[in-house]
């Protein structure tokens, strides 16, 4: 089976499963949000105080709506607007988001062209105050399935996108980038909580600013020499910005992930700043919101099948149940492990969700007496010390994790 056949099979399977689980659970609606912030490493002369928010909503099988509110751009100007492949907005500023998201290897085009990149969203136009207040609807961009844009990045460009219509010397660039010029600002797309209405987005300007600033993220599906589909992801763990009193902890670190389709997912964890010789529950939580209420706004453990909490080796557990991490005498954690339930593929991918490191030891669902009820929900792991969004990642930005996996 070649890679294209594999993707077709996986896509059909994923969409079928996604339709069933989403219609049963939440009316087949997915909501995402992205904070646009200035390029941290802009080319000389392109520094722009751009900021804003893009909210997205899609009902399964319907177009995706994008609501944009952006400020800080030059007045009365057009700007190319795209979704790029990676969510990494830190390694090299907006440049490290890669090229336009283009899983089908098409040429660049306009929003209405049949042949275009998935990430081709045309142009945005500022008013006399340098603001954009617009809505874009698109049938190609999706928040569902194997080509979901969750965990990727929006990019606002300096110039007008020529929509693939460039001629002469501009033709080659036109069919790749639309000759839209430098990247003024960008932002990661993450899952957010909602309660059936668009007005219930849980976000603020600080939410995704910290997400975009502190979470090293990106995405890559690649074909190996054996024609096996591979995915990599990475997350930067940072302290809880709104810790419960007495739980302030300077935890920082990185979690690398890698998975070959159909196999277990590999994790490489490096953290510091924890109390020495201590146990800490470690989970994947449902949402990528790490700022609205600190790590508390990541929601509960990622648990799409409504199972009880358990150990990583239990047959019945949350997908997000990853057991405990143990710090050494210096308060550091360095651990590698594999897990068969966590996936970077399909409708239950953990991309766009969040890692959380807890204050206490996870009892793995073995609590008794008064602790029994909470044991089956959270493992009684206590306060959330730190967290980080999980996003698609290019292997070349995480050599320790990739080297360990390859070895």
From TrEMBL:
Keywords: Copper, Metal-binding, Oxidoreductase, Signal, Zinc. It comes from Porites lobata. It catalyses: 2 superoxide + 2 H(+) = H2O2 + O2. The keyword Transit peptide does not apply. It comes from the Eukaryota. Binds 1 zinc ion per subunit. Binds 1 copper ion per subunit. Residues 50-188, 251-390 form the Superoxide dismutase copper/zinc binding domain. Transmembrane segments: none annotated. This is Superoxide dismutase [Cu-Zn]. Its EC number is 1.15.1.1. Pfam families: Sod_Cu. Its cofactor is Zn(2+); Cu cation. Residues 1-18 form the signal peptide. Belongs to the Cu-Zn superoxide dismutase family. Destroys radicals which are normally produced within the cells and which are toxic to biological systems.
